[in-house]
Each structure stands twice: as structure tokens, then as C-alpha cells.
């Protein structure tokens, strides 16, 4: 069974139909599953091929898919709600690395917090059902650009001093 069929089954179980507008939205999410799109970005991508899909329909579809646990609604430092398809990773939401320079988001599908969960359970008697972790920092490409800019800046100062 493919991902679209799995989502359609979840919709039916929750009492919803897979309308053409919902299908278009879900297919777009499946095709852009690593991009963490906002509702407005999803709408903009749909608009050309599916002019019958309105922004309100996109919002309602995203709300339904979040409610039936097909999507995670996440917010990074930009304050925008973004949507992330749930995956079958070890039962937990995956983690994110967010570059504060270029905004790139990288996913980590490895569960890094199992020991922390055990400690929370033992020390605070709190049964963790899920967790989310976002690391903020500077990605490798932006670090490389910063190093090159420093090197280039050093060359310009040195060449001016020689004249």
C-alpha cells in the first residue's frame, strides 16, 4: 500500500472523504515531504495546477491531517507554522537542525533522546509519549561561506597594506 492509500484509509477511518482538493494537497505534501512548507507555500504551489483549491481549503485539509496524525504542525524560529509528514521512525517525531543564517532545515531520523526519556520516567515519574528536538545553529554550507569571506577579507586587507 502506498503512502497516499495509507492516508486515504486514515481519512476514511476518521469519517472524511478524499476529495480532489485534499488529494491534490496530500500529493503535493508527499512530493515535497522534506521541505517543511507553510500553508501559504502549499497554496502557492497548488494554485497553478489546481486553481479550484482555495487557501481556506488548504488550511482545513492541513488541520484535518494534523488531527488524524498524518502531519505534524511545527514552528521554527521564524514563527510560521510548518507542516511535516509523519514517518514511521521508531514511533517518535524526528529531530531538526535549523540554520539561523539560510533557514535550511535538516532532519535527523535517529532517536537521540532515549536515555533522556528513561531518566525523565525514573526521576520525575513522567511517562513520555513523544518528544521534539530542534537544534539551532549554522549549517555546514554557511560555515564554509563565512570562512571564505574571512579569508577573502584578509586577502583584501593584506593587498591594500602592500601598496
Automatic annotation (TrEMBL):
Pfam family, one: FUR
Protein residues bound to Zn(2+): 99, 102, 139, 142
Cofactor: Zn(2+); Mn(2+); Fe(2+)
Organism field: Ligilactobacillus ruminis DPC 6832
GO BP, sorted A to Z: negative regulation of DNA-templated transcription; regulation of secondary metabolite biosynthetic process
Gene Ontology molecular function: DNA-binding transcription factor activity; transcription cis-regulatory region binding; zinc ion binding
Record's keyword annotation contains Iron: yes
UniProt KW keywords: DNA-binding, Iron, Metal-binding, Repressor, Transcription, Transcription regulation, Zinc
The keyword Metal-binding appears for this protein: yes
Lineage of source species: Bacteria, Bacillati, Bacillota, Bacilli, Lactobacillales
CDD domains: Fur_like
The protein's name: Ferric uptake regulation protein
Alphabetical list of InterPro entries matching this protein: FUR, Fur_C, WH-like_DNA-bd_sf, WH_DNA-bd_sf
Recorded family membership: Belongs to the Fur family.
Free-text comment on the cofactor: Binds 1 zinc ion per subunit.
PANTHER family listed in its UniProt record: FERRIC UPTAKE REGULATION PROTEIN, ZINC UPTAKE REGULATION PROTEIN
Amino-acid positions noted as binding Fe cation in the UniProt annotation, renumbered to this chain: 131
Amino acid at each position: 500500500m502506498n503512502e497516499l492509500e495509507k492516508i486515504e484509509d486514515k481519512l476514511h477511518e476518521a469519517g472524511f472523504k478524499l476529495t480532489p482538493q485534499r488529494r491534490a494537497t496530500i500529493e503535493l505534501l508527499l512530493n515535497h515531504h522534506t521541505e517543511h512548507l507553510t500553508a501559504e507555500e502549499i497554496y502557492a504551489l497548488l494554485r497553478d495546477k489546481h486553481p479550484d483549491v482555495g487557501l481556506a481549503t488548504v488550511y482545513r485539509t492541513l488541520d484535518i491531517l494534523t488531527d488524524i496524525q498524518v502531519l505534524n504542525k511545527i514552528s521554527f524560529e521564524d514563527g510560521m507554522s510548518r507542516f511535516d509528514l509523519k514517518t514511521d521512525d521508531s514511533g517518535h517525531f524526528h529531530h531538526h537542525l535549523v540554520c539561523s543564517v539560510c533557514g535550511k532545515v535538516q532532519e535527523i531520523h535517529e532517536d537521540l533522546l532515549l536515555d533522556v526519556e528513561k531518566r525523565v520516567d525514573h526521576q520525575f515519574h513522567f511517562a513520555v509519549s513523544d518528544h521534539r528536538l530542534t537544534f539551532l545553529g549554522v549549517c555546514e554550507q554557511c560555515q564554509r561561506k563565512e570562512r571564505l569571506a574571512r579569508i577573502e577579507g584578509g586577502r583584501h586587507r593584506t593587498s591594500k597594506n602592500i601598496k
